[in-house]
Write a structure and sequence with these properties.
alpha/beta; Nitrilase/N-carbamoyl-D-aminoacid amidohydrolase; globular; single chain; 17% strand
Length: 265
């Protein structure tokens, strides 16, 4: 696989304001295209908003949802991808068949093709239905890409299955923090040194820094190492299952001033 220039974006979405959120996506895509980025990853459910949906009625929740690929948000992402010759990944609430809703991540590609991943391990709203399959697809960049959303990445078997299906690049969008939030309960920025030392294995300190879910959209190689397995098994034997959202029930989304935060690598 050749080297591919990618970018990740963190921004404070406006709860329920899809017009504002897609406008922010547009600004970041234009900036990324100027930096010759080929793939850009936005956060989980960044188009519809995330935290506020916990308190929505079913009717209000349904009003935010859209079909994929025929909904307006997916159509705008596909137009942006073609216009700027860039692959774009962004999250939203998908309205599917039989009245089901999914926490979905749409990937729009510059050749007009698209893919969607439905989160396997859902939280935040009782109206969400878990996805039932892994998502791996070809891209015009000469590589196969897989998608796992937030808590999907906490289950090591998910990453292994995605790799076994041929994924060479993993898009791992999150919505649990990872930026310099003003919220006292939010995660703070993830130390880039963790990524720089990825080939050294996972120390206890690195695992503790990442918390229950690394909270930014991350493009990485989905390779699991055997030495990671004993720690996972030991954690399961302890009988404790941490809910990554339980301690954040009091948090509220805060609209922050606009500022560019595109990071290319």
């Amino acid at each position: 696989m050749r080297n591919i220039r990618v970018a990740t974006v963190q921004f404070q979405h406006a709860p329920g304001d899809k017009a504002y959120n897609i406008e922010r996506v547009y600004d970041f895509v234009v900036e990324a295209a100027r930096q010759n980025v080929e793939i850009i990853a936005f956060p989980e459910m960044c188009l519809t908003g995330y935290w506020h949906v916990r308190k929505l009625s079913r009717d209000a929740f349904a009003a935010l949802a859209e079909p994929v690929p025929d909904g307006p948000s997916t159509e705008q992402l596909r137009n942006l991808a073609r216009q700027h010759a860039i692959t774009i990944g962004a999250g939203l609430i998908e309205r599917a068949d039989h009245g089901r809703f999914h926490n979905s991540y749409v990937v729009a590609m510059p050749d007009g093709t698209w893919a969607v991943h439905r989160k396997l391990h859902v939280f935040v709203s009782p109206f969400l239905t878990p996805g039932d399959r892994y998502t791996v697809f070809d891209t015009p960049h000469g590589c196969r890409v897989g998608v796992l959303i937030c808590y999907d990445n906490n289950i090591i078997e998910n990453a292994r299955a995605t790799a076994l299906l041929g994924a060479e690049v993993l898009l791992a969008p999150h919505q649990t923090g990872g930026c310099n939030s003003v919220s006292p309960r939010a995660m703070k920025p993830v130390d880039p040194e963790i990524w720089a030392r990825r080939h050294e294995g996972h120390s206890r300190g690195a695992v503790r820094d990442q918390g229950p879910g690394v909270a930014h959209a991350l493009a990485s190689e989905p390779r699991a190492r055997q030495r990671d397995v004993p720690r996972v098994q030991q954690r399961r034997r302890s009988g404790r299952r941490r809910d990554p959202y339980r301690q954040r029930d009091g948090a509220r989304p805060v609209r922050r001033s606009d500022r560019r935060n595109v990071r290319a690598c």
